[in-house]
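forwarding from the other thread:

> can someone predict this with S-adenosyl-L-homocysteine?

sure thing
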Amino acid sequence: MSKLDIEGVGMTSQRARDRLIQELEQKSIKHSGILNVMRKIPRHLFMDTAFATRAYEDTALPIGHGQTISQPYTVAKMTELLLEGSTPEYVLEIGTGSGYQAAVLGAFVKELHTVEIIEPLYRRSRDLLYDLGYRNIRTHRSDGNWGWAQAAPYDAIIATAAPDEVPSELLGQLKIGGKLVIPVGKQNSAQMLTVVEKTGENSWDKKMAEAVQFVPFV
Ligand code: SAH
């Protein structure tokens, strides 16, 4: 762990992180717990060093294999939606990517399972999350269209890639009263950040939160 530059300098320093948090507050992220967690997480370690100096800009950045680390605002917003009401204990994330969203969620939930379809991204985030000391995050290489049945049912599921429609498998792995936060829509049209609440074995309550831009579900 000593080889990781967790503190950072200059563009990756605590001052740079504090400025990002101010920006998120201005964009009306209100959950102080989320802001405090994001203030501490070294986002610059979740991307290639070539982009590290931009790590505390509020923007999505490439992480290779045609994928991106989500925009900090979007991470904060989705986490707010997920934690609203009661804090979920058992959570599933689809699309580990860099592992950054997982690290943020890991600070709040009891056990987070996260699945990634691209092998090298899975390996990198698995190793990084371990090196950073997260022991309640379980990474898996798998196709998220099938959720992760081995640890179902979940209190909440979050997807960080956008399918055309909500995969029914994910709804099946939710507890009654649980919720799914997911961007839905085709790549080149507007995607909607959607919150689906499971109200009964076969009933759902769906709400649209806001327009977003995500990479597509593979
Ligand atoms: N949560 C990530 C966002 C990464 S972008 C972060 O904080 O960095 C979305 C990720 O979803 C990509 O890594 C992509 O490979 C992955 N993905 C896309 N389709 C998937 C699928 N069907 N199953 C699992 N992961 C998928």
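The pocket of S-adenosyl-L-homocysteine is lined by residues 67-70, 94-95, 97-98, 100-101, 115-118, 121, 143-145, 160-161, 215, 217-218 (CB under 6 Å). thats all i got for now
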